[in-house]
Specification:
- The longest helix has 15 residues, at 30-44.
- The protein has one helix at residues 30-44; strands spanning 6-12, 24-26, 47-52, 55-60.
- The protein has one helix and four strands.
- By secondary structure, the protein is of the alpha+beta class.
């Protein structure tokens, strides 16, 4: 079985979000969150998606 689409990381401003099982990066504000999302997109060769206010995921398509 080959996984073609999967979540690589989560970037959040909410430490109490209850996210588990993935690499989680915590940002102190929206500016830092955007910076982390852009960096992780490039480093992980993925795409950043804003799920809700304060939560981004990096996905491999």
């Amino acid at each position: 079985m080959v996984l073609e689409k999967y979540i690589l990381a989560v970037i959040t401003m909410h430490p109490d979000a209850g996210i588990a099982g993935l690499p989680i990066f915590y940002a102190k504000d929206e500016q830092e969150q955007n910076r982390l999302a852009n960096l992780l997109e490039a480093i992980l060769d993925g795409i950043a998606h804003k799920i809700s206010d304060g939560v981004y995921i990096i996905v491999k398509h």
